[in-house]
Amino acid sequence: MDKILYNKNFVVLVIFMTIVAFCAIVYELLIAYVLSYLLGDSILYFSVTIGLFLSSMGIGSYLSYKIGDKSSELVERIVVIELLLGIIGGFSIAVIYSVASYSIVYHRMHLNSFLGSTIPLHIVSFLIIVLIGIFVGLEIPLLTRLVNKNSKLKYTLARILTADYIGSFLGSIAFPLLLLPFIGVIKTSFLNGILNILTVLIILYYYRIKNYKWYISGSLLIILLLSIFFIKSNKIELYFDKKMYTYNDNSEIVTSLQSPYQKIILTKRESENNTFITLF
Predict the structure, then answer these.
(1) Residues near 199 by beta carbon (within 8 Å), at least 6 away in sequence
(2) Of 187, 45, 62, 61, whose CA–CA distance to 122 is shortest?
(3) Which of 5, 34, 102, 214 has the greatest number of CB atoms lying within 10 Å of its CB?
(4) Mutual angle of helices 118-147 and 153-174, in 10-degree steps
């Protein structure tokens, strides 16, 4: 019986931790990429995103001691964390694009200032990074304490960290080679959110807690919502692009495409007898 429980927990651990680590690194790369795309200076924004994310993970790990040791409580907190990560991470890029499109356009048209327009974008983006980092930082300590009830600590840590590093590796490879060039940033964020919520169903399949049916229903509802946005993501992205690049009534987007390396937008603006083509 102990062997069956041990094997079951090991499989659940590997699947769960690999997926959440995959999602975490993809959130991080998505935000860093979008900030670099919108504001330039990729070295600065990738460095700041990574540093802020890791420090926030440290805060999350520290706060984990406040959560009790009962298995039911640990599972419930893990479920809540994954639901929040799926929502915040899944909608993160759409929110960042929304803030960027409105703040940049407003400052260009009314204040004639590009630098001022980046302040709301920085605040919102860094807040999202901190929240994701804190929740990700809570995961490993809580999961370690949960699994450690049926295994020695040294084996528990070895398996959790192994799964975590494997998931991070897979995410870091999948993002530039598959997700970015073939799906795009906004679709990837919604898809990643869906994947994050699926981990809740994995946990609840093996660990039945009080009100687990409510958590399952909530998870399915969030997956449905993210799926709708995923389907509509092309229209959402086009709407934000129009806001940012055609704020002048005489401008229109001629071409918008995602290369393996960057997003390319070509706009056309009519002015009296002249036509201006701009590449972003």
Answers:
(1) 16, 19, 20, 23, 82
(2) 45
(3) 34
(4) 150
The answer to whether the predicted template modeling score (pTM) of the entire model surpasses 0.90 is: no
**pLDDT tens over the chain, length 280 residues:** 334 344 566 677 778 899 999 999 999 999 999 999 888 888 999 999 999 999 999 999 999 988 887 878 888 999 999 999 999 999 999 999 999 888 777 666 665 655 556 788 899 999 999 999 999 999 989 988 887 766 677 777 888 888 999 999 999 999 999 999 889 899 999 999 999 999 999 888 888 788 888 999 999 999 999 999 999 998 888 888 777 777 655 666 666 666 666 667 666 666 555 444 444 4
Torsion of CA 35, 39, 40, 42, to 10 degrees: -20
List all residues 6 or more positions away from 267 whose beta carbon is below 8 Å from its beta carbon.
245, 246, 251, 252, 253, 254, 277, 278, 280
